């Protein structure tokens, strides 16, 4: 008799969760799809119950938590290699290709001292609980907030890779090869005042180094990838003239065979956009849940806000119009002018975003902005003016249906001079706002870079894990194409149209 009681509870729990799934699914998608999805979800649910039949509580909690956008890794089957198909080999590059570049941190970016941001393996200086505003705006007591600089992504990513659970020293086991080259800092230290020869030199040297390694022969570099904290345009100089921007790294035959992960991509198919780093680098699921709850319940004083600078010299920039409307909004909009303010201060930035319902994300010098990710982190609904700023970039990270989590206002509407942001955003009903904000909160775990070293159930499907998973999938696909003798052109040429509003 006594033994029957827990079983009954399990059945009740299962039924309850099943009902939740049914309700949730019917709300969301049309009926034909619903049946498929429910079967799928229910199957998943039973599989995870079965996989850990001695501990139902654990798998129930995990499934319940998935609704917050956090996908903890499912328990692996016991007998098989949990890393099968996921092994990565990291090249042990000579230090001239990474460590030496950042050792001399002063000239990395001509206009800016990068040295203070190098600490904590690239996360930057930790934000301490120094005053009441900091304590109110951030959750500092967990020690997970840092003044992280956007250009440090390559350093942060490499540190994470050192702790990747399926890293191998045996390259014959590896499904992909990671090249820890600080390409962004190499180009940026030479962007101003150096000729092409100097800008191209190190990339050419690395291409030669890679080609001579035994790992190259396996797929001629098609299984190699690298990560950069700069926009992809910097590596695709159009003509070989000193006056043209950037280096020609991605035009080198070796790099043309590789896959590049960058904070912003161009039209090329072998580039994938990964999130800019934010200031938040938590080390547990609980911290993330706490943060999601916080941003969902905040009282927001401003309808919309813009953090950034005007671009008076940039032809066709809509920033001037945006700032004009913001200032004229009679307190509905907050403008933090980065030309006069310290916009590297995490507290100042997050305070504005936490206090705003919508965050305007017009393009600046390039399509994308770090601000997109800071605003999502703060639970502020992003407003995009160009598909190239988000929808056509972070396809691994954002929901396909952009209306679920963002607002789109075509740039040309803003140029026209008759469109009122205040009127338009003010007209969006509370229910839509709340629905979008919940969706934004679900994106948070996917776009942050958590602290290195989380394994097992504490591991979070964050920006790094997603980037690695998707890259492994791409390499597997390319490998299949090669085996079938297919033409790889479509995977390595300019095919994207960043200006078109259709999700790729
Ligand atoms: C179930 O999991 C919890 C949390 O991981 C653990 O504390 C507990 O001992 C487990 N129970 C059994 C029966 O394995
Ligand atoms: C900060 O908070 C403490 C305790 O809540 C309070 O005593 C103190 O006056 C506050 N300081 C400022 C500058 O507001
Ligand atoms: C690879 O080899 C290096 C040096 O021999 C060692 O420090 C490192 O732990 C090894 N890594 C793995 C994943 O086996
Ligand atoms: C490029 O600049 C380097 C160092 O400034 C100089 O030594 C070299 O001669 C220049 N090359 C050309 C082709 O101008
Ligand atoms: C790039 O890959 C192709 C095979 O897809 C190969 O024929 C070519 O030699 C590779 N390029 C280099 C520089 O290895
Ligand atoms: C602005 O756009 C609206 C609708 O798209 C159009 O009716 C109006 O004529 C335009 N005004 C100007 C000045 O172009
Ligand atoms: C939203 C939610 O249900 N979060 C829960 C996820 O699971 C942990 C325990 O592992 C709870 O503490 C959270 O409240």
Automatic annotation (TrEMBL):
Localization (cell): Golgi apparatus membrane
Sequence intervals crossing the membrane: 7-26
Membrane topology: Single-pass type II membrane protein
InterPro entries xref list: Exostosin, Exostosin_GT47
Alphabetized UniProt keyword annotations: Glycoprotein, Glycosyltransferase, Golgi apparatus, Membrane, Signal-anchor, Transferase, Transmembrane, Transmembrane helix
Keyword Kinase: no
Primary location: Golgi
Any GO MF annotation of the entry: glycosyltransferase activity
Domain annotation Exostosin GT47: ranges: 83-423
Source organism, top-level taxon: Eukaryota
Recorded GO CC terms: Golgi membrane
UniProt entry tagged with the keyword Transmembrane: yes
Family: Belongs to the glycosyltransferase 47 family.
Name under which the protein is recorded: Exostosin GT47 domain-containing protein
Lineage: Eukaryota, Viridiplantae, Streptophyta, Embryophyta, Tracheophyta
């Amino acid at each position: 008799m006594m033994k029957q009681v827990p079983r009954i509870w399990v059945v009740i729990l299962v039924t309850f969760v099943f009902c939740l799934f049914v309700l949730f699914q019917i709300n969301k998608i049309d009926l034909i799809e619903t049946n498929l999805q429910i079967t799928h979800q229910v199957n998943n649910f039973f599989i995870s119950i079965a996989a850990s039949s001695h501990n139902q509580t654990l798998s129930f909690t995990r499934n319940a938590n998935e609704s917050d956008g956090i996908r903890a890794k499912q328990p692996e089957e016991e007998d098989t290699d949990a890393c099968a198909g996921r092994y990565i080999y990291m090249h042990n590059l000579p230090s001239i290709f990474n460590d030496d570049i950042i050792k001399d941190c002063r000239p990395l970016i001509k206009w800016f001292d990068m040295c203070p941001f190098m600490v904590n393996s690239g996360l930057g200086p930790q934000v301490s609980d120094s005053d009441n505003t900091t304590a109110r705006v951030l959750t500092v007591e967990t020690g997970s907030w840092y003044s992280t600089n956007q250009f440090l992504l390559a350093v942060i990513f490499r540190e994470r890779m050192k702790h990747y659970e399926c890293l191998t020293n045996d390259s014959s086991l590896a499904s992909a090869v990671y090249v820890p080259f600080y390409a962004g800092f190499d180009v940026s230290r030479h962007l101003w005042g150096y000729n092409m020869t100097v800008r191209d030199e190190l990339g050419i040297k690395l291409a030669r180094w890679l080609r001579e390694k035994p790992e190259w022969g396996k797929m001629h570099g098609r299984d190699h990838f690298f990560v950069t904290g700069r926009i992809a345009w910097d590596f695709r100089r159009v003509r070989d003239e000193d006056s043209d921007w950037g280096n020609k790294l991605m035009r080198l035959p070796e790099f043309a065979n590789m896959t590049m992960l960058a904070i912003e991509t161009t039209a090329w198919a072998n580039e994938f956009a990964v999130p800019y780093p934010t200031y938040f680098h938590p080390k547990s699921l609980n911290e993330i849940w706490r943060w999601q709850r916080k941003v969902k319940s905040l009282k927001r004083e401003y309808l919309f806000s813009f953090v950034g600078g005007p671009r008076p010299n940039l032809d066709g920039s809509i920033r001037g119009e945006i700032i004009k409307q913001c200032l004229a909004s009679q307190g509905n909009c907050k403008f933090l002018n980065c030309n006069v303010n310290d916009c590297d201060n995490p507290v100042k930035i997050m305070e504005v975003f936490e206090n705003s319902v919508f965050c305007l994300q017009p393009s600046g010098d390039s399509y994308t902005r770090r601000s997109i990710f800071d605003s999502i982190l703060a639970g502020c609904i992003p407003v995009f003016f160009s598909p190239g700023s988000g929808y056509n970039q972070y396809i691994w990270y954002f929901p396909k249906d952009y209306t679920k989590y963002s607002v789109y206002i075509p740039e040309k509407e803003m140029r026209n001079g008759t469109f009122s942001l205040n009127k338009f955003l003010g007209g969006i009903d509370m229910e839509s706002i709340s629905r979008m904000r919940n969706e934004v909160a679900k994106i948070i775990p996917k776009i942050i870079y958590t602290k290195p070293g989380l394994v097992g159930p504490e591991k979070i499907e964050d920006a790094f894990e997603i980037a690695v998973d998707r890259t492994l999938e791409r390499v597997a696909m390319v490998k299949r194409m090669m085996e079938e003798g297919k033409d790889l052109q479509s995977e390595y040429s300019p095919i994207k149209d960043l200006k078109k509003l259709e999700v790729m």
